[in-house]
Amino acid sequence: MIVLKSSSEIETMRFSGQIVANVLDAVGEAVKPGVSTWELEEIADAMCIKAEAKPAFKGYRVGKNVFPCCLCISVNEEVVHGIPSRDRILKEGDIISVDFGVQKNGYFGDSARTFGVGKLGPQARKLLDVTKESLMCGIAKMDADHRLQDIGSAIQKYVEGHQLSVVRDFVGHGIGRGLHEEPQIPNFGKSGRGLRLRPGMVFAVEPMVNVGTHEVEILDDGWTVVTCDRLLSAHFEHTIAITENGPDILTLSV
């Protein structure tokens, strides 16, 4: 069941979204060669405490696996759900996806960005630019004139038009009082299909884009998703409310 949010609920979610944006801003500023991914985790943890916000991912359970950190940090061929580590040191030319969410006043916000570490090569730069722009292509379809699969169709067409691939096994989702609500939002699809979009729907849209194959696998830690060909992957995400006036991005930096 899709739960529609009132305007006051959307404003509460915006507050959560701003905490998320502030943390990602701070983490992004700290990304540089020689920094460990654990140092980035410490920044997020301290900011959650200061904001009196609950990290959305820390303690999240899938089966017997419990995620141990505030941030999901995925480097290079890692797609999503990477675990911060004191031993993972960033180096020049890496790309690092940082996924983060909080719960504040009963509502969640969720966002992700991929950062370059120092100077990037042309392939990595293209991957980041295309992934970020594909998210905006999907968001542009989030109004009452469109259907659910129009979002994924727009993302897929933009990505594949630049000879890259979209991950099929992990998708976006509804969000509100729950971190993961209905519906699922694939980053691929056929336009004109799926449920009619309505004001009050709030979605976390999150294209994951690979340089090579779209196929992925999960490592032995039970969390970290990597590309099967071990080529680069990038990830961008926003929490967006559908309003009478179109899409309203709740996780933008202000």
Structure in words:
The protein is of the alpha+beta class and 254 residues long. The protein has one domain: Creatinase/methionine aminopeptidase superfamily (Creatine Amidinohydrolase). Helices cover 28% and strands 27% of the residues. A hairpin with a 6-residue loop joins strand 9 and strand 10. Helix 1 runs antiparallel to helix 2. It is globular and about 45 Å long. The relative contact order is 0.19.
Give a nutshell description of this structure:
28% of the residues lie in helices and 27% in strands.
Write the topology of this structure:
Elements: H1 7-30, H2 37-51, E1 54-55, E2 61-62, E3 65-66, E4 72-75, E5 78-80, E6 95-104, E7 107-116, H3 122-139, H4 148-161, E8 165-166, E9 172-174, E10 181-185, E11 202-205, E12 208-210, E13 216-218, E14 225-227, E15 233-235, E16 238-243, E17 246-249
Antiparallel strand pairs: 1-6, 2-3, 4-6, 5-14, 6-7, 8-12, 9-10, 9-11, 11-16, 12-15, 13-14, 16-17
